[in-house]
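Quick illustration for those who missed Monday's session on complexes.
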Amino acid sequence: MIQVAVFGYGTVGSGVVEVIDRNNSYVSDNSGDKVNVKYILDLRDFPGDPNESKIVHDVDIIVNDPEVSIVCETMGGVGAAYKFTKAALEKGKSVCSSNKELVAKHGAELIQVAKAHGCAYLFEASVGGGIPVLRTLTTALTAERITKIAGILNGTTNFILTKMEQDGANFSNTLKIAQDLGYAEKDPTADIEGHDTARKISILSDIMSGHFVDSDAVSTEGITKITSSDITIASKAGYSIKLLGLASRNDDDSVGTMVAPFLVAKSHPLAGVNDVFNAVFVTGNMLGETMYYGKGAGKLATASAVVADVIDAARKGSSCMYKGWDDTPVKTASLSDSEYRFFVRCSSGDAEAVKAKFAGAGESITAGSETGFITEKMTQSGFDAVASELGIRILGSIRVYE
Ligand code: HSE
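Prediction with L-homoserine bound:
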């Protein structure tokens, strides 16, 4: 019998219990022995819940039970989750996590703790929900020098941007719809300001580079300033607007990271990733471009990835461990030298004068009282200089992804 404990009986934690229960024959068969959830750790009681008898409030009951060999950490946060994860690993229990905040902050250390205690720290569900992208990077693409990762990594914002494009709705009304449907949290800051995507792209960058990429240092812009005019004009020009997490690795091994909304040509596969779906576009130096697509959020999709880690840990023990990354901060590449084309939106009456400041800008497209155009490729610092001269005459600007 493989005895499992679950830390946190929220959306993902209850999904983990459900996947282990409903798919028990597959999960047990693939694990090599019967898998059973012995304990669920939560502060709350769940009267009437079918798993009520498994609820415990004291982590020590789990950590000190030698029968428990695997723990699923679906609590979130970096306080108790860090302490409890470390305690379980130090007792030789593998930990399978969906907690991107914890992995982004303490992943390097927790991987080392697991290695030192002959168990595994796995976190497939922390990036891209149910999409098996970390396993792909760490097992299937190991002959590659990964040079670039571009991802739609947040389901909530992708739902909002998709809905704004399809319905011509504004940001705040669409956010409300996302909240009513249960996609966006009551406090949606982490999603809409891009912090969730920054954590996920930093984990992908850790794996790509082998060094620590601080998610707090990722240049991060959210989607709150995107207007329905941006979306309408971009669409007329042949682009969708997507919140992208980007990481690129240069020849000198420096890594540039960024989270921001981008105009993505409708012909690019990332433009077709809609609603709460996620996709990760990976470029390797031998293989070229590949893309991984699927449900990036949601109870059962995310839980399925956690349980796949449980099966890996059950079958392979510490040998299934990610190679990991070291604590040395990665050499960061400056973004101010990077070149982009920029979409610029201004009032229609001022459009020709604003456009004149950007030599070689493309066709003007008007929607109502506002007009947009796309500049030629220019450095970020060059664009910032013109934008600061024009001040509030630029109503909005968005980089073009290429
Ligand atoms: N809030 C996240 C999202 C959940 O919307 O993608 C999955 O990490």
